[in-house]
TrEMBL record:
Species of provenance: Nitrobacter winogradskyi (strain ATCC 25391 / DSM 10237 / CIP 104748 / NCIMB 11846 / Nb-255)
GO MF annotation terms: ATP binding; protein histidine kinase activity
Protein name, per record: histidine kinase
Coiled-coil residue windows: none
GO BP, sorted A to Z: phosphorelay signal transduction system
Alphabetized PANTHER family for the sequence: ETHYLENE RESPONSE SENSOR PROTEIN, TWO-COMPONENT SYSTEM SENSOR PROTEIN
InterPro entries from the UniProt entry: CheY-like_superfamily (IPR011006), HATPase_C_sf (IPR036890), HATPase_dom (IPR003594), His_kinase_dom (IPR005467), Sig_transdc_His_kin_sub2_dim/P (IPR011495), Sig_transdc_resp-reg_receiver (IPR001789)
Domain Response regulatory, chain residue ranges per copy: 6-120
Organismal lineage: Bacteria, Pseudomonadati, Pseudomonadota, Alphaproteobacteria, Hyphomicrobiales
Keyword terms of this UniProt record: ATP-binding, Kinase, Nucleotide-binding, Phosphoprotein, Transferase
Amino acid sequence: MNVKPTLLYVDDDKALARLVERGLTRHGFCVEYASDGEAGLARIAQGGIDVIALDQYMPGLDGLETLGRIQAIPNAPPVVFVTASQNSKIAVTALKAGAADYLVKDTLGEFVPLLHVAAEVAIRQALVQKARDEAEAEVRASRDRYAALAAEREMLLREVNHRIGNSLQIIASLLHLQANSSPEEDIKAALTNAMGRVAAVAQVHRRLYTSHDLKSVLLNQYLEALLEDLRRSTEGNRMSRLDLKAQPVEIDPDRAVAIGIIVNELVMNAVKYAYPDGPGPIHVELASDGDDIVLSITDDGVGLNARSDPRSTGMGQRIVSAMAQKLDAQAERDPTHAGTRIVLRFRSGTPQVAKPMSATAA
């Protein structure tokens, strides 16, 4: 509020206007006068008015018509509606039209003191409303800025994941070319294994690039793409069938990488060792079980009775163990299965403490 707030008194009663000016001046107001609605609107347009006292019955525009015109002015001052009429309908209409208060003129000398109080209250309410509007506007602007920054961050993260996925895919392709050109079977196998590991990581970044949510990966879609990469990378159609049965489970990207690498190692292990006499089926299953996620890789091959292959370096087993610890997983061989079935059970939430893996693989 200004040191001396300015009240515009709009009324064709000049005698009452002089009383208002004398009374409110003693209370620290600057009082200006307009004899009708048009003159009042012209003065309001010049600015500098803090509150308006507006009479209903005037020549030309009446009070309600003038009030409607005032409310159409941006940042209009508050209006205290005044009239000599005792008709409550006018008061209700004025308040609905936007008046801050309503006063009835009297002949007992109470009008000016009541107008002083109403004017001060109207000014305070207008200041509070202005501060609230400014605060809400700032909140909206801050929210818009945050939304813009979040959208920009998401776009940058998608671009980063896109570039990482492309780069890893190039590395996987180079490994594939090198494996195909190598005459040594051991080198070819090592390069193929490395290619699968790189592809498992690349697939996560491709999933994030195309996903609506950069914080999670749908494992069924991820494993489907990963197994398709493995099908293409396996030469000579050594697998008669590579099946996937997976529920649409969401998980964070870091653990999705661990799951992908485990699947890659165990599937490739089955491709190399489960069916020495020819290709055979390999099954990958993923399902929710309460708060846990259960992953299994199954083949119907030679199983536990097979002797260790002298070509095995144990690298796959170490990789699976490391990734299982990252998942806080419990991994076990199913002793009742005729071939080999590895089951990993881990919590759907982020693990806190890693536990050792109890099964061997690869």
